[in-house]
């Protein structure tokens, strides 16, 4: 796996519900699962920038001049690995699943950094990304997003009729691009629940 995709064990522990450092056994299991993922999978990502008006005609609530669409996946290898442990070791499967969820977010973080560099000369700034089915982005645009990106061709990602992505450890995102910087570094900073373990990425970027 490309070394730009780095999973922080502390992030995994927090997603698992630990407020501090887990015991030695859990810490060792997290490290083993991260290593196994790194040795097994081949993350892929594809993104593209579109005119906001074009996206609006396809059901996206694009209120900015441009927006980027992202599709990322850990591939079928991640699903195979998870299914194997779900049959033999549910504890390891749970930790491995959490590691994979953190990792797919990291892949999208790297894509966002690439997009930011690509639009810098245009004077555009990234605003917080949103996944279809979350916030104001309806799950109904999932198919359009994948078609616009030719995600099946580029990275092998499709969706079933309900909008669920295949392979399962995949993610899509809508990223507004505006001429003014966002005051929000992530959705988490708008929430008053400061003890929530999901505040990982906004805290990392502060």
Order of helices and strands: HHEHEHHEHHEEEH
Class computed from helices, strands and strand pairing: alpha+beta
Low-confidence stretches: 186-193, 196-206
Rg estimate, integer Å: 17 Å
Q: What is the mean pLDDT?
A: 89
Descriptors:
206 residues, alpha+beta, four-stranded antiparallel β-sheet, two-stranded antiparallel sheet, 8 helices, globular, disordered C terminus
What's the structural blueprint in terms of helices and strands?
Layout: H1 9-15, H2 24-40, E1 44-51, H3 52-57, E2 66-73, H4 76-88, H5 90-119, E3 125-126, H6 142-149, H7 151-155, E4 158-159, E5 165-166, E6 170-178, H8 200-204
Antiparallel strand pairs: 1-2, 2-6, 3-6, 4-5
Helix pairs in contact: 1-5, 2-5, 4-5
